[in-house]
Amino acid sequence: MVKIRDLELGEFPLLLAPMEDVSDPPFRAVCKEQGADMMYTEFISAEGLIRDAKKSIQKLDIYENERPIGIQIFGEKIESMREAARIAQNSNPEVIDINYGCPVKKVACRGAGAGILQDLPKMQTMTAEIVKQCHLPVTVKTRLGWDENTKYIVEAAKMLQDVGIEALTIHGRTRQQMYKGEADWTLIAEVKNRSDIHIPIFGNGDIDSPEKALEYRQKYGVDGIMIGRAAIGYPWLFKEIKHYFQTSEKLPPPTLSERVRVCKKHLKFSLEWKGDRKGIFEMRRHYTNYFRGIPHFKMYRKQLVEAMTESEVIDILGVVEEKFSGISLI
To answer: How far is residue 279's CA from residue 100's CA, in Å, rounded to a whole number?
Structure first.
């Protein structure tokens, strides 16, 4: 049983990654329905929380049916991160997660996210201060290092454990790689296999199929897997992986009717949570993957991303369901 303090996550948990503009409550709801064991909020700016910025405060929204959940915060100032952790705790998540992995220039190049990988003493101090601030478990998500010459994750993992974090997720790329190339899980395994590491170690990067999930579980020995981009528009991946673990057989892909049902559910919650205009706009990134495998879908995708109202989207989805109801999906 994998545990973060007293939080039991099962024998091999599948976690939904914190993804900016993706891992919001509507998306988390459909991933939870499809088997995600634990999820994280979008990363939240420490400065935004302290200044009561509307966008940052809204990201603290947690619904009971999506637990267990972690609130992830990021920032470059130690005192701001302490205060942000205090504020985030008031939303009563299961854990507070620290983002030491975001590679985006506007975050990393000012010393937040993956930027802190260039200053491990500061990482140590910041983490220790957040742990002291929190009564909840503190976890971390990070990368192998800043670049090929600074892959200090093995040393950093021990340091983070020693100052009190209770789980660590490692993305198998450096900041310099961004999301390019293949994720390297060998150093993740090295962290996991250290005799003096006793917290759960979760691996992240490139898991996009049940076969790869099983291969990486067996090959690298991690305690669980975090799934990010592959779940966008395809929340069924969690269910498919679990079924494959149990049976060594692949589930058939979701039917077109199932895809339409989940897409509509996602859309409805998106509109309720974000409002009509933003809800419509931010659903557009999901349509391609929701209908992956449908031949000649390009025309309908164009219509979906140009639709401006809920009724337009629902009508287009109805046409798609009717037109392609007899095809085999991959």
So the answer is: 29
Reference 317, options 253, 264, 258; nearest CA is 264
Parts of the chain with a pLDDT under 70: 326-330
What per-residue confidence (pLDDT) applies to 246?
96
Could you give the CA distance from residue 83 to residue 49 in angstroms, rounded to a whole number?
Answer: 9
Between strands 14-16 and 224-227, the pairing is parallel
What phi, psi does 58 have (nearest 5°)? -60, -30
Yes or no: domain 256-323 corresponds to CATH 1.10.1200: yes
Listed residue (157, 159, 163, 161) closest to 171, CA to CA = 157
pLDDT, one tens digit per residue, over 222-280 is 999 999 999 999 999 999 999 999 999 999 989 999 999 999 999 999 999 999 999 99
The 10 Å Cβ neighbour count of residue 187 is 18
CA distances from 247 to 9, 138, 159, 219, 234 (A): 20, 34, 39, 19, 21
- Residue 181 amino acid letter: G
CATH 3.20.20.70-classified regions of the chain: 3-247
| Cα dist from 70 to 47, 147, 254, whole Å | 19, 28, 28
The fold of 3-247 is TIM Barrel (3.20.20)
- The set of catalytic residues is 102
Q: Region of 111 please: left (phi>0), alpha (psi -120 to 50) or beta.
A: left
Gap between the Cα atoms of 170 and 191, Å rounded = 9
As annotated, the residues of the chain forming the CATH 1.10.1200 domain(s) are: 256-323
Q: Provide the token pair at 62.
A: 């947690």
Q: Report the C-alpha gap between 174 and 179 in whole angstroms.
A: 9
User: What are phi and psi for residue 284, nearest 5 degrees?
Assistant: -60, -30
